[in-house]
Structures are given as C-alpha cells and as structure tokens.
Write a structure and sequence with these properties.
about 270 residues; alpha/beta; BirA Bifunctional Protein, domain 2; eight-stranded mixed β-sheet; three-stranded mixed β-sheet; 9 helices; 11 strands; about 35% helix; globular
Length: about 270
C-alpha cells in the first residue's frame, strides 16, 4: 500500500453532535492539504440527540417529544434514517484519500475491508460476527417493513456486522471529490424504546417498532461478557488493521486547515428547530 499504510489517529472525543459531525467533515476537507488516511474515535455526550439522514423528512420526527425529552435534532451528511446519540454509543470515522487502494469506486464493495477488520476486532472480544453480503442487504431492503426502516439500525447494508442474526455494527459513507469518509457506530446499550418515542408515529406503531427493532438489533452488553469501551475497541481495531493491511496508526493533532474546516462546518450540523 506504499505511503498509504501510515494512518493518523486524531484525538478521541465525547462532544456534542454538531461538533462531532463537523469533525467528520473536517477530516474529509483535510485530505486536500494532508492526503493521508485519518481515523478518529468518539462517543456520544450525556445530552441525547437525534441525528437524521441527509434526505430524511423532518415530518418523521415528533418535535414535541424531542422538546419534552430535552433532545436536540441534527441532520448528518450521510444517508439513512434516524440514529440516536446517547451515552454508550461508540463511533468511528475514517477518512481515505480518493486514490487510496481501499477507496473503491463501488459504494457497496468499498465497505468490505471495513467489515472484515471489524469482524476481526470483535473476535478479539470473543464475539463471532457475520458480514452481511450484498445480496442479503438487497433482499432485506426490498422486504423491509417501512416502520422498521424509520430507524437506521433497523435496516441492513453490505458488510455490516450481525451477531446471531441481529445487527451490532452499522456503517455509513460520505463521498466527496477529495476522498471517502466512513462512519461506524455500535451501541453499548441499544436504546430502541428511547428512539421510537421520538418518531412521529402512533402509540401502537411505537410499541410494534420497539418489538421489531429488538428482534433485529443487538448491543455490546448482550454479546460480550465484558463489553469493550472506546479505548479497547480502538486498540483492537488497530491490531486487526495492522495484521490485515500492514497499517501503522500514529497519534496526530488536527491540522490548522482541519480546524478551520471544522469551525466552518459547525453551523451545517447545528440543532434544527
């Protein structure tokens, strides 16, 4: 992989959603001046936030329920539907230059390496996870209950991770001229009822959604005897990435250009309302 096997590890964070989403955008923008792969790990802050997909309608969210729950609403740059940021939601961003060997032009296939490294990462903690094939993801999408589709973790995407048939690790992707941003999320505790309470659906639909999501989604507490924290996941992922791709990850600060881009992107991800 030549010079592409040295990756920067940006500082971990537990910030508000607007800042964390802006940081992802800054990683992409930073590839223009620092064309080196970068990785960062972060966790949701104590203030809950609902983050909807780039094309999701505001009408799908119950604004009164958000206000009553003290939950902010944000829109991310990647697609999909609602994701709830709560304590214990662990996340990873990876930015790859457009000419990187792992930045494949095919959107679905570009997730394969990431799924395989996460599979090895989870195995480090005794978790046997299965990759979702492209065919299985397409079949699931074609038959997915529209109610379940309201929650991003309710659906399957290629190379995401299942444990005993239930989704544990979710992926998203942003593609720009300068490169690709992979976004990964895994829940320590799955907040299905909390998420369903914020959507604009009837009470009967809400109960049904919680039940159906429980059948399709799992979390670290359920699959691990000793659930890993953010630092443990980061360390295991680094080992798996090195073993598979001979990648060395070294600590790095944000560059001046990235900090400028982060500040500029802050308003784009500010609370909606």
């Amino acid at each position: 992989m030549g010079g592409m096997n040295m990756w920067r590890r940006l500082p971990p964070a537990h910030g508000d959603p607007a800042s964390e989403l802006a940081a992802g955008a800054a990683m992409l923008a930073g590839l223009t001046t620092t064309p080196q792969p970068a990785i960062r790990w972060y966790a949701a802050a104590s203030q809950p936030a609902l983050v909807i997909g780039s094309g999701q309608k505001l009408s799908e969210v119950d604004q009164a329920a958000l206000a009553n729950a003290g939950t902010t609403l944000h829109r991310r740059a990647s697609g999909g539907t609602a994701v709830l940021f709560v304590p214990g939601f662990l996340m990873q961003d990876i930015a790859l230059p457009i000419d990187h060997p792992l930045a494949l032009p095919d959107v679905s296939e570009s997730y394969r390496w990431l799924g395989e490294v996460w599979q090895a990462t989870l195995a480090h903690f005794g978790v046997q996870a299965d990759l979702i094939t492209i065919a299985a993801a397409r079949s699931d999408r074609a038959s997915l209950d529209p109610l379940v589709a309201r929650a991003c973790f309710g659906g399957w995407s290629p190379y995401e991770l299942l444990v005993a048939g239930r989704k544990l690790v979710g992926f998203a992707q942003v593609r720009r001229r300068e490169g690709l941003l992979f976004q990964v999320g895994v829940y320590t505790h799955w907040p299905g009822a909390q998420l369903a309470a914020l959507l604009a659906i009837s009470e009967s639909e809400r109960r049904l959604l919680v039940e159906r999501l429980a059948e399709r989604v799992t979390d670290l507490v359920t699959v691990c005897t000793n659930p890993p924290d953010l630092a443990s996941l980061a360390a295991a992922f680094a080992v798996a990435l090195c073993q598979r791709y001979d990648v060395t990850i070294t600590p790095s600060d944000w560059t001046a250009a990235e900090l400028v881009a982060m500040a500029a992107a802050q308003n784009r991800f500010a609370p909606l309302g």
